[in-house]
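Running co-folding for glycyl-adenosine-5'-phosphate.
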Amino acid sequence: MSKKPEMSELVAFCKSRGFAYQSSEIYGGMSAIYDYGHYGTLLKNNIRDAWWKNMVQEHAEVLALDSAIFMAPLAWKASGHLDNFDDPQVDCKTCKARLRADHLLEEFGISADKQPLDFINQELDKLKKENKLKCPVCGGCDLTPAKRFSLMVKSNIGAPTDELTDENVVYLRPETCGGIYLNYKNIIDSLHPKLPFGVAQVGKAFRNEIIARQFIFRTREFEQMEMQYFLRPEQMVEKFAAWKADRWQWYLNFGIQAEKIRWYKHEKLAHYASDAYDIEYDFQFLGGFKEIEGIHARGDWDLSQHGKFSGCDLSYTDPYTNEKFIPHIMETSVGLGRLFLMFLDQAYTKESVNDGERLVLKLDPRLSPIKVAVFPLLRNKPELVALAQDVAKRLRPHYQLEFDDHGNIGKRYRRQDEIGTPLTITVDFDSLTNQDVTVRERDSMQQTRVSLAKLEEYLHEKLGL
Ligand code: GAP
């Protein structure tokens, strides 16, 4: 098995092969904000589509939504974000690094999750007295006490920046589920779903994260894929277990090794929550298992709060019994960027081959940015190029395809291996007389002669698409 890459290697790979670039790089770069290049966008879209297919297409009771990023500011008061959505921040006076106090404490086995600032500062002081507390960036010992740092990102839609007040400030949503709660009444009134039902959406979210050194894992602008499931309280235990199993299986179905993921059960819950689990992936370059997805039982907190603050009745009336009540909610919530990083990390493989070492992205073909590459054996033979172009033209409506006639065949294979293309097709001189081509498989490197008449059928069978 090949060793997993260091973060710097993955960052360099993403940049050099057109997967991800730091945002505004020509202006010096924006911290913890990334842009996705050609292959990165294709990979990310494929992951998103795989999630969407599983959540919406394969669950008849899950509906689709695409709500706006901006929402009524009062909604963030109702949800508790304006008062409580913050992280404890510590600054290093030597190198000016901004640090998460809870992460510093975690290194000493102290859980600061949802703990008050007093507790955090007491624990930091104890470590300082024992000379154990050091800045992870420069090793300095001069750290400030922890203070609360709001993760909410403000904007000024509809008001000039110099007239911003608490009344007219708007926020870029820190999670996408808020739009689902605010549309709950519209959904009930327009689509009349019966409990239990879910609402899924994918969209951008923004958080003013303190830590900005974890590549795409923790960014200030990111995409979330969330599903809120509305149900009767007595259905919670069964449905929570079913969604947990469902989400776990999704990872396995897309090739994640069972030993690379694990469950983390939250011991300290928000006051309204009855259960919360994370799926964690073993990111070796981030020091081990880290959260990729949360599955949370949220009770009736969200709808009750928005009902109270908006003055709207958000209860549900059972169509059979006329019973009226506020549905409870459980959610599945995952960051698309984190899935991107997880799939990339697991797929990134260096292995010895006859002519040295190759880098290959062993992605599930459904996720691969390019499904098929077509090569003419030689670029200076017009008859080979014409037939290869003809093959490419035939296949392009069905597959994201790349045509490549640069360099020798070995180099072209390596280029496709590096971006995870599962199948490559070579048109050679025999193709002209026999009307067949060589199809090479990425992982086994096995080559098979396939007749042009049966090519689509063969690719369909191999790719499972
Ligand atoms: N609605 C629930 C919610 O937002 P969360 O645990 O704060 O819960 C859910 O976030 C998921 O969103 C995380 O498991 C992670 O995959 C992703 N996520 C959160 N913050 C992120 C960030 N700054 N950068 C990238 N992904 C993030």
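Result summary
The mean pLDDT is 95.
Residues 175, 177, 207, 209, 218-219, 222, 224, 226, 291-294, 331, 333-335, 337-338 surround glycyl-adenosine-5'-phosphate (CB under 6 Å).
Job closed.
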